[in-house]
Write a structure and sequence with these properties.
The protein is of the alpha/beta class and about 600 residues long. It has 26 helices and 15 strands. Helix 1 crosses helix 8 and helix 2 packs across helix 8. The radius of gyration is 25 Å and the shape is globular.
């Protein structure tokens, strides 16, 4: 008989499946649910969850691979992998987390699952193994995800990284009934992590139905208490001093880790060991009599409600720290090293400003204003601009959800495949509306950092219905590809497929999204037959180029010449073989920068 927790889990997954435009296979739906649940406190978007899911065969007993640097999810275009990356730009003792997930719908935990993972990770964590050697056993997708970790580990080795390797085995069984052999296999896997990644902290755990449901039914803690030493107020705004030890407690979860989701609406990521953060660290570690708040501009907190209790303790609902991420990270890092008790003896403080507002326009003005005195790239402030508010409003009228504020609609229970993030819309417009699917593929997390590209993608001259149509076309293609292609092929060709199909519809080259307004108004849709034909055509072309140049499949997908050749095919200008023969790939077939 199924346990109550399993009944609730099945109902949760069914509800999510019923809300989707395209249902996922049952195994995929459970893997997605498992990853979303165990990574809940990381507050990843659905796109980020999908990016780490390992699909298809040759998965080595690993269903999910996620790598974090100081709490930020790493992708292939993250700064640490840039050609001009300088390790000293990252703080000492940078935190790296490799989080591996195995998810099975079985109602028990097996030794076989650990044996398979142990065998795979012994090879995948061996820095002497080449990609060619690994391809004998594992998929390109799994190798690529694991390479994100081994590359980050190697590149940041001089910064004495604090590495954690986690393995969550998720099943619908009862952890209490796991046998002794399974328990020993857990220990063996942890020992492997400690051996293969010296000085790493291994964490291996079983997540059964009871633990899984407890995690799934919990929510990230956005309602927190903060005790002020003293404060002044005017209306719904407050400013005052908070002891560093109390602010450290405010930032920390039950395990003392920094609650990264409190910074979801911050306009930039933690910058690491840059000059300003070194200065903050020096102030925190100094033994002189200067109070910290004399030397620091403090932090700004937005919240939806405030209740002030005894002892000047504020209970804040819907907390978001929108300015002061560098300060907050540095405070947490320093106090975690010296200890909160030692900091209390020093009795230092930080200036904290708290604003209560549920009006999004007001919140956006505060975010922009409080970040105007420090050098913040304009790209970081995009979510506060009118164009994104207009897109969000239009999407809502059409039953879609533009995630201008990360995970706002996900946390509101909206269907995942009707939620479109700023970066996802940017990729769809770049690929289809600007005819650059190679750039959309090559720059998943940095696409909007280039001001010229940003202005081309998000323009008031592009009709709102065109933005929605481009988003829905890409979503249709993604859903249909999930039924017809393995994950690695889908990841590399999804934007090329959508560009290929829309180019065939439009019958001309596309350089500007406004060209597609008539198609958007018509509401032209993509069929599974269209997708099957496109993926076969593009795979054949990509395979021919990869063989000719001895290049990896993903390198071909990121190249400008492959994008141009596929557009030529869509327009019927040349036959596939003629294109491959006529283009000088040695000179032109280079990955997008």
């Amino acid at each position: 008989m199924a346990t109550n927790e399993n009944v609730l889990i099945d109902a949760f997954i069914k509800e999510a499946q019923d809300a989707r435009i395209t249902r996922q296979p049952d195994d995929v739906a459970f893997e997605t649910f498992a990853a979303q649940t165990v990574l809940r406190q990381r507050n990843l978007s659905d796109d980020e969850i999908e990016s780490g899911r390992i699909g298809g065969g040759k998965d080595g007993g690993i269903d999910g691979v996620y790598i974090f640097q100081d709490g930020a999810l790493l992708d292939e275009d993250s700064d640490v992998f840039a050609d001009d990356f300088v390790p000293k730009s990252v703080r000492k003792n940078v935190e790296i987390v490799l989080w591996l997930i195995q998810a099975k719908r079985e109602t028990s935990f097996t030794e076989t699952a650990f044996d398979k993972a142990h065998s795979s990770l012994r090879r995948l964590l061996d820095l002497n193994q080449t990609d060619a050697q690994l391809r004998v056993y594992y998929s390109e997708e799994l190798i690529a995800r694991m390479r994100l970790f081994t590359r980050a580990w190697t590149l940041l080795g001089s910064r004495s990284p604090d590495i954690t390797v986690r393995f969550d085995y998720v099943a619908k069984g009862d952890v209490a009934t796991a046998n002794d052999a399974v328990s020993q296999k857990m220990i063996d896997l942890g020992d492997l992590f400690a051996t293969q990644v010296p000085a790493a902290k291994p964490v291996v755990r079983l997540v059964g139905s009871r633990q899984l449901w407890a995690l799934a039914s919990s929510t990230p803690e956005y309602d927190l208490q903060l005790r002020f030493e003293d404060y002044v107020s005017k209306g719904d705004s407050y400013a005052g001093l908070v002891r560093l030890s109390d602010y450290f407690d405010f930032l920390s979860d039950a395990d003392g880790k920094l609650q990264g989701h409190l910074f979801d609406q911050n306009v930039r990521d933690f910058q690491g060991d840059v000059a300003v953060n070194r200065d903050i660290q020096a102030s925190l570690e100094s033994d002189n009599a200067d109070d910290f708040w004399w030397l620091n501009n403090g932090v700004t907190i937005l919240c939806s409600a405030i209740n002030i209790g005894g002892g000047k303790t504020f209970t804040l609902d819907g907390v978001q720290i929108v300015n002061g991420m560098q300060t907050s990270h540095s405070i947490h890092s320093a106090i975690a090293r010296i200890g909160a008790d030692e900091e209390r003896k020093r009795d230092r403080s930080i200036l904290v400003r708290v604003f209560k507002s549920q009006d999004e326009a007001t919140r956006d003005r505060i975010i922009r204003a409080t970040n105007s005195q420090t050098k913040v790239p304009d790209a970081s402030l995009h979510a506060t601009e009118d164009i994104h508010r207009q897109i969000e409003t239009y999407f809502l009228t059409m039953g879609w959800f533009y995630d201008r504020r990360k995970n706002f609609y996900k946390n509101s229970g909206k269907p995942s495949d009707r939620i479109v993030s700023i970066s996802a819309l940017g990729q769809a417009v770049m690929a289809i509306g600007l005819g650059r699917p190679n750039d959309a593929r090559a720059r998943p997390s940095t696409l909007l950092n280039n001001p010229a590209d940003y202005r081309a993608i998000f323009s008031s001259r592009v009709p709102l219905e065109t933005y929605l149509w481009l988003a829905t076309v890409q979503r249709q293609v993604d859903g249909l590809l999930s039924e017809t292609a393995d994950t690695y092929v889908r990841t590399n060709l999804r934007f090329h497929v959508s560009t290929f199909l829309v180019t065939k519809m439009f019958k001309e080259r596309i350089y500007n999204p406004s060209q597609l307004t008539a198609l958007a108004v018509e509401g032209r849709e993509i069929s599974i037959i269209d997708v099957v034909d496109a993926i076969e055509t593009l795979q054949s072309l990509a395979h021919e180029i990869a063989t000719q140049e001895d290049w990896a499949f993903d390198r071909v997908a990121k190249s400008k010449s492959f994008a141009e050749a596929s557009v030529n095919l869509a327009l019927g200008l040349e036959e596939e073989q003629d294109i491959a023969d006529s283009v000088d790939f040695a000179d032109d077939l280079q990955p997008a920068s």
